[in-house]
Design goal:
With 234 residues, this protein is mostly helical. Helix content is 74%, strand content 4%. It contains ten helices and three strands, in the order αβααββααααααα. A three-stranded antiparallel beta sheet has the order 1-3-2. Helix 5 packs antiparallel against helix 9 and helix 9 runs antiparallel to helix 10.
């Protein structure tokens, strides 16, 4: 008697877990689909977003669309306006772009220096493991450069974390700067340059050379700002 009862109870408890998992997978799929549309400008910057329209397109209820949009709002890719609903966040203006890079130049070279000062075997392994995940983009759409964007975000966040300051890491992550930068502009030629600079950074930090790490991060950010991106405003 006891075993069947236990089995029935176990089955009863497992069913909600499976439903929850399926629901989360659905939300994740909708989130990725909308994010791709935003990154590729299928949903134009500043455009209104119809929850009902997306639900019809994806053949889902409005609930996963709303949950996905809430996640995208936390990343700064959409904004919610009272009584109006959601719209895609506009692209960075020149002033916002310059402010973002001034912030990065204040924060990240210092973080790289501190990471080199504090680096241990675990930190070296984490940096090298992350670097090994980097893949050169295959195209100029989000599907092609997504893996580089994700790696870039993790890489810079990891260095900020290795500085030993949770406040620095948190401040960096709140900007979601890589999403905004990749959404702003992307060329396939950027990938190899970025990865070469990441290798230089890892070498400087893992060798425990604070001055080289700070210099490498400064060059990396300045190259991104002046050589690869700022020209789009000219």
């Amino acid at each position: 008697m006891t075993e069947p009862t236990t089995a029935r109870l176990a089955g009863t408890e497992a069913a909600p877990d499976r439903r929850l998992l399926r629901r989360q997978m659905l939300v994740d799929d909708v989130y990725e689909a909308i994010k791709t549309m935003l990154m590729d400008h299928v949903i134009r910057p500043g455009a209104r977003i119809s929850i009902d329209g997306l639900a019809r397109d994806f053949q889902v209820s409005s609930t996963p669309v709303r949950e996905a949009l809430a996640r995208l709002e936390s990343e700064g890719l959409v904004v919610k306006e009272p009584l109006k609903g959601y719209r895609a966040t506009p692209l960075l203006t020149l002033a916002e772009f310059d402010d973002l890079y001034r912030f990065r130049l204040l924060l990240e070279p210092w973080a790289a220096r501190r990471a080199a000062e504090l680096i241990d075997d675990d930190g070296r392994e984490r940096l090298r493991t992350e670097l090994a995940t980097a893949v050169e983009p295959t195209s100029v759409d989000y599907a092609g450069y997504k893996s580089l964007s994700v790696h870039d975000t993790r890489f810079h966040s990891l260095i900020a974390g290795l500085s030993g300051s949770e406040q620095v890491r948190s401040a960096f992550e709140r900007t979601h700067c890589h999403l905004h930068i990749f959404r702003l502009h992307y060329e396939r030629e950027i990938g190899p340059e970025v990865l070469t600079e990441h290798h230089t950074l890892v070498e400087a930090i893992t060798s425990g050379d604070p001055a080289a790490a700070e210099s490498a991060m400064t060059r990396h950010i300045e190259n991104s700002m002046t050589l690869r991106l700022r020209k789009i405003y000219e």
